[in-house]
Design goal:
Low-confidence stretches of chain B: none
Number of strands of chain A: 6
Oligomer: heterodimer
Radius of gyration of chain A: 24 Å
Number of helices of chain B: 5
Number of domains of chain B: 1
CATH architecture of one domain in chain A: 2-Layer Sandwich
Mean pLDDT of chain A: 86
Number of strands of chain B: 9
């Protein structure tokens, strides 16, 4: 008997075992619930500014992102969403994507939330967002 | 084996590229203000809509295709496709080929074949003014490389690189055209 044939047969037998006996894994119960870590991430991704004009805040966000070298990809004024991306580093090795959402909070304030991806992985370092909001603050002041 | 060495060396060098720290992504640096000055101008126009359509017309004059425009946000995104072939690269490719013949490893270095130049324009009123607008445009380009060979190893085509364009002449040209265009639009000559 051919050795190759035996190997192929063996693979088929193994495959049959794997599909027949295993059940799909159960999704974890907390899959869609907010974990403490997520709440923490949300808190440092969000900041409230004392500005009442939504359009002006949106312009400030766009201006801040452009100052930081981002290329603005999408702006949705009614929803207050700005999406931007940039290549960073020597030889542009890093790809950074950012989404900023502006929405009114009460009559006189705006809640601005930013989240960023670095080479498709979410950035979870609070320092990064602090830097962004510092730049945004300057932009809001000058606009 | 000989032909593998340059490929391995390239891979080794690529792994040495230092990734920037995420903190730096959202931090203004010394060049931010310089680029802002280069890319933005204050333009006087009676209506934002007029200025936006004038900007679109200038981009069209420069050979761009408008990809997206958001009037509420005063934004236009446009692209143009061009050949990226350069004499310098072709000459380098030739010399590397000749050197390769002496070393008995025929090497064809990939050269840039095609480029897409993109422009993103954003404008908003300056302060509370209704006739003065801050117009900012950013040009950048994406380059596609052709294929190449190193001995028996082929280097696949389509390798992409992206770069921002900071040549002051390009920005100056755009704004010079825009100022003329705005003048024409306003005065309806």
């Amino acid at each position: 008997m051919n050795v190759k044939f035996v190997i192929i047969l063996f693979i088929f037998v193994l495959q049959a075992c794997s599909t027949g006996s295993t059940k799909p894994p159960k999704p974890p119960e907390n899959l869609l619930s907010l974990s403490e870590a997520q709440m923490k991430i949300r808190s440092y991704q969000t900041r409230v500014f004392d500005i009442s004009d939504e359009e002006k805040s949106l312009h400030a966000v766009v201006s801040a992102l452009m100052d930081l070298g981002f290329i603005v990809e999408r702006v949705n004024v009614p929803m207050g969403i700005v999406t931007a991306a940039k290549f960073a580093g020597k030889g542009y090795v890093a790809f950074v994507e950012a989404t900023v959402v502006v929405r009114p909070k009460g009559e006189t304030q705006m809640e601005i939330r930013a989240n960023a991806l670095f080479n498709t992985k979410p950035i979870e370092d609070p320092k990064v967002y602090q830097n962004f909001f510092a730049t945004l603050q300057k932009s809001l002041f000058s606009i | 084996m000989k032909s593998l060495i340059p490929v391995l060396l390239a891979l080794l060098l690529a792994s040495c590229v230092r990734m920037p720290k995420p903190e730096s992504f959202f931090q203004l640096d010394a060049s931010s203000a310089k680029y802002k000055a280069l890319q933005s101008r204050i333009v006087e126009a009676s209506k934002e809509q007029e200025l936006l359509s004038a900007s679109a017309a200038v981009l069209q004059d420069l050979g761009f295709q408008i990809e997206e425009s958001v009037a509420d946000a005063g934004m236009i995104r446009a692209v143009k496709e061009r050949s990226a072939r350069e004499y310098g690269q072709e000459i380098k490719r030739f010399f590397v080929f000749v050197l390769g013949v002496f070393a008995r490893t025929v090497t064809l270095v990939p050269v840039d074949l095609h480029q897409q130049i993109a422009a993103t324009l954003v404008m908003y009123p300056e302060g509370n003014s209704t006739s003065r607008f801050n117009v900012r445009i950013v040009f950048h380009r994406t380059l596609w490389m052709g294929d190449g060979t190193s001995g028996n190893q082929s280097i696949p085509p389509g390798l992409q690189t992206m770069e921002m364009i900071y040549d002051p002449e390009i920005y100056r040209q755009f704004f010079a055209r825009l100022s003329k265009s705005v003048f024409l639009e306003i005065h309806q000559i």
